[in-house]
Amino acid sequence: MIGLRAHWRGRERYTVFATSCDAGALQDAWRGDADRPARLHIVALAPDLQPGFHRIPQADPRLTLTSVCAPLEEALAQLGAQPDAVFLEGVTGTAFARPLARIVALGARLFADGLDAEQRAALQAQGFVFEGESGHAVFASRKPRLPMPPTPERRAIVVGAGLAGSAACAALCARGWDVTLVERHPEPAMEASGNLAGIFMPLLSRDDNIPTRLTRAAYLYALRAWEQLGGIGRAIEGDACGVLQLARDADHAAVSRAIAQEGRLPPAFARWLERPEAERLLGLPAPDGGWLFPQGGWARPGSVCAAMLDACGARLTRRFGIGSIGLERVDGAWLVRDGEGKVVAQAPTVVLANGVGARGLAQSADLPLASLRGQVTHLDGASLPALPLVLCREAYLTPAANGVACAGATYDLDGDPLLREESQAENIERLRNLVSDPAAAEGAALAGRVGFRCVAPDRLPLVGRLPDFAAAGSTERLRDVPRHPGLLGLLGYASRGLIWAPLAAELLAAQLEGEPLPLEMALVDALDPARFVLRARRGSRAPAPGLL
């Protein structure tokens, strides 16, 4: 570690990429060095995880650890970071040299033992200068490098105190930011995050598509982040009792069975159950089997918000009961004004985490966000079969907690905030199909809650710097889309806010800090709010009907 310590001395941040790495030893070396960098980021390959990037929360927020399960060349191509040091061990071939040179910082140190002559030559051709016959080198290419972002002024305003905003506050405060949380209601979690229970589970698909990969990453990160907050069933109200997702029909079961037979899914993550095993577990009919997600379950979103906000400590200032707001950029800072024009908060950075409320602000009004009404039905647990876990298919049913089970939820296009008998009937009908009991919840009183989901056209969240639609012009690439300075969004979580919130906030904070990103770049781009600028432009070029 001697060469590494000399290299990182006195820096604000330092990033290490390794094909294999004893992260604990590296962190110990960092802790034991009085001249250590303020923040250390480690990205290391790990073959024993599911495919993709895995951000592992650390007790010390000045440390980040990202484990990557991917071939070396693929990992380098998807890495959202400029490593300052690279440790290569056991590499084969020379294909890694070019993608490595494309991402490392100028002056980066390379530590690589066991390279053959061909590998050394390939690295030298890309700008690495070796020190004699050792495997140590310095990257000295004259090719231009993208400048590292400057150290930010760590003051921000977060608008919205639901899951998205609470997670943003936690991620930023952990990094030493002073955050003002602005909420129109008098308490947090009073809109879509105010339900009694939200379920958490991953998404599966045969082709492991982008939504599946994103949801898997978010789910796994949420499980780790909640454990760090104190755990489901302890600091957070809920139960990691498991989720059983019943197959819709025989065709769905056949597709699911094919996924299971590929053998890619660890049993602790997802396990396919044929009918007999599913029925033994559930104690109810499961005619086509189902997926068991053993680490899944339910949690009360408001308790998750409270745990995240409590973790912020004194760095968080709460401005609640503000009502409607407006944004104004003045002399490099954002001003948040209430309905009477009074400034209630001021900072260089603003994070919009207020769901469909973002449509009411001039700077984000062009984002294609829709509001979907969802009515959840609350039922007396005694009127239903006792469930050992969460049960779902087209609808979901939670085990009773404090005597109340939750069933739902509807997807309605109107804005009615009141409970409706027809929505209650819809939920109960789907519940009866779920438990195969036509008399379940007979005579249930109208009880429940209505919330409004914020949804984007592609059903993926919007995470990152918000685009300036008016200034976009003929932009063709995401990186060239003009952005509102210091204005970011955490929006469009639809029905998965519970698991989306922690990872999306971690991604946004990493972007602001210039850290390695917790997702591969293809997935980061899929979440970029500026994607809708490019789609709008492509749509405007479509030929008129009849001209094809």
Automatic annotation (TrEMBL):
Top EC category: transferase
GO molecular function: tRNA (5-methylaminomethyl-2-thiouridylate)(34)-methyltransferase activity
Gene3D superfamilies: D-Amino Acid Oxidase, subunit A, domain 2, FAD/NAD(P)-binding domain, Vaccinia Virus protein VP39
Keyword annotations from UniProtKB, A to Z: Cytoplasm, FAD, Flavoprotein, Methyltransferase, Multifunctional enzyme, Oxidoreductase, S-adenosyl-L-methionine, Transferase, tRNA processing
InterPro entries hit by this protein: FAD-dep_OxRdtase (IPR006076), FAD/NAD-bd_sf (IPR036188), SAM-dependent_MTases_sf (IPR029063), tRNA_S-uridine_synth_MnmC_C (IPR017610)
Record's keyword annotation contains S-adenosyl-L-methionine: yes
Annotated EC: 2.1.1.61
One Pfam family cited in the UniProt record for this chain: DAO
KW Transferase (keyword) present: yes
GO terms, biological process: methylation
Occurrences of domain FAD dependent oxidoreductase (ranges): 156-510
PANTHER family membership: SARCOSINE DEHYDROGENASE-RELATED, TRNA 5-METHYLAMINOMETHYL-2-THIOURIDINE BIOSYNTHESIS BIFUNCTIONAL PROTEIN MNMC
Protein's UniProt name: FAD-dependent 5-carboxymethylaminomethyl-2-thiouridine(34) oxidoreductase MnmC
Origin organism lineage: Bacteria, Pseudomonadati, Pseudomonadota, Betaproteobacteria, Burkholderiales
